[in-house]
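Researcher: I'm comparing several assemblies side by side, and this is the next one on my list. It has 515 residues spread over two chains. Same procedure as the others: predict the full complex and return the structure.
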Amino acid sequence: MVEEDRESSKREDEGRQKGKFIVERDYIEPSRIVEPSSLTAEGVDISGRWGTIVLPRTIHEFDTSIYERVKRLPGGSHIANCWQCGNCSAICPVAHEHPEFNPRYLIHIVKMGYTSEIERLKDSVYLCSGCGLCSSVCPRGVDPQHVMIALSLAFHAKGGS
Amino acid sequence: MSSIDSVLIVGGGPAGLRAAVDLAEMGFSVVLVERRAELGGAPIRWKYHTLAPDMRPTEEVMSPLIDACKSNQRVRVYTSSVVSSFSGSLGEFSVEVKGADGSSSTHRVGAIIVATGFEHFDARVDPRYAYGRAPDVIGINELEGMLRTGKITRHDGSTPKRIGFVFCVGSRDRSTNPWCCTVCCGVSIKQAIELRRLLPDSQIYMIYMDIRTWGLWEKLYWDSMEKYGINYIRGRVGEVYFTGEKLLVKGEDTLVRGPIEVLFDMLVLAVGMEPGEGTRQAARVFGLSLNEYGFLKPRQPNIHFDSGVDGVFLAGACVAPMSIEEALEEGSAAAMQAAKLLMRRSKQKVPPYG
């Protein structure tokens, strides 16, 4: 537990360090700030502050590749039924403790193919305890408990490891 | 035939036709006045392919009514005509019908049914959707005609792959019309299902504020996701650009609180319903009240047929936005009220039949 706390505070420190010279830095999540260790443009070295890139929040494409994979997995076969009511997240005991774990939201970003959000949150799927309360209250038979398993498989395959 | 056996019906759409057929079949004579050249109202004028929620061909619903009005000798049909004047008292009205060709006729009627319908919202009024400026931005009314031909094509003749529907265009917005048109969710979803059947490789995204598929129409919504894999984005579109090739749709997905700028091949606008010129003209002639939105205002908000003018009844989408199934029922309801009035004033207890 202590070990884990140390890990997470280390990550937070790194996040705070990134782009610290940016005015109104708090409005930008660390994951969108890219600081290449070295960068040259047309032969000129622009490493350091000049090379800092802030990735836009705007979603430019619906990448349905993970969605298609999830639909074919046994647990994900009813994911298309989801209408984002949020019954699953409302009853989820894990979501009440971990704000980054939200089954409704995970299903949505996968269905829409928002790759940067998936990248940011894909590890949160392992927080699922598999209690099955979500599936017992889902009005559309999405079975979020097993969708979470399908998501973890699909994310894993996506990573190629 | 005495005047008290006649009913004037203004408007030859679903409500007016249903009322005319019901009254004629009960033995009353009907003067049916339609402003446009053709009977059938919006479903025929816009060539609706099928009707929600069961995707029944429009002709199956409308043709029997149109044919019955044309063939029944008790119904006199005046197309391209309007009612220009109205006088008399309850049960003994005198009305003048003027045709676009300059013709004019006077009729004595015992009751009047106003069923002047609605107009589709003109999306050029709200410039953010680029309707009328960019190609491949069409209204749900225009998509019906395209579905009827079975050929869904873009401006350059190609087949669209990614199609977006924008809900609530010209509805639920103070800058255009603040009311909900009640049917465009269901109609859009019905069309999305038809598009997926025609174009199985297409991706369809419904961009909505709320889904209002009331009552049994909810099945359309469920089927669209469960059987047809249609996607829903909760949010609004702020701007549409034509890049020269595709439509760049800028908006927000409110479920991720994120802006989106995605290219679409075709954008379908779920345009709302609003009162038309026919309704305003009828209100002027018959001295009917309009509500704050310009629809005809019944005496009681929950009893549509009672216009507040004795002997004048209301039916259909001139009172409030509604589906065709509701308009047909309102036509029948108004016919019943007119029949009740005529029978009460008649010495006969049973109307003449045969």
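Model: For your comparison table: The CA atoms of residues 51 and 123 of chain A lie 29 Å apart.
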